[in-house]
Amino acid sequence: MSNDTQLPTMQTVAVLRSEDFCVTEGVAEGESITFADELVMDDIYQQSQSATRVPLCLALRDGEDGFVIDPSTAVGKPSNIIYLDSCITMMGSDSTTYEVLVLVEVEDGAFEATYLLPLANLVADTNYHLVGADRDAATTRFAEVAVFCSPVAPILRWHLANGARLSSFRSATRF
Known about the structure:
The protein is mainly beta. The protein has one helix spanning 137-149; strands spanning 10-17, 21-25, 44-47, 54-60, 67-69, 81-92, 97-107, 110-118, 128-134, 157-159, 165-167. It has one domain (10-167).
């Protein structure tokens, strides 16, 4: 890859709206999922039957934290800021854990909306216990998603800890 190659400045991710993932049992019963400061551990959430992922188009902010919503988006208001709030861990009734990134939309410094980026498939009408919320892991986990969803993924070169190089992935989903 030459030094003058421009890397993409926009990323589209398939998110759920917060109203599609609500507390069915617990302290916040009836409320939609929200940002980390307001989450209550052990609340039980369910994804609604009508939930569908929608494309959220994010553009990099020049020299600032977070992203800005791109005009080509299907959800959110273009030019609003999106912050990676947290990576939450949910536990299914079979004890399987699921990670979900929480993204927060902000307009003029005020909270506007919350979106979820599940890192695994969630099933409607299934109980998911909230067992963890990690603000520090959100950026790392998003970077992993963004790299493997990126159009440049097939031409990236990966350097392993021992110095060996892994290059030219044919598919971002095969390892």
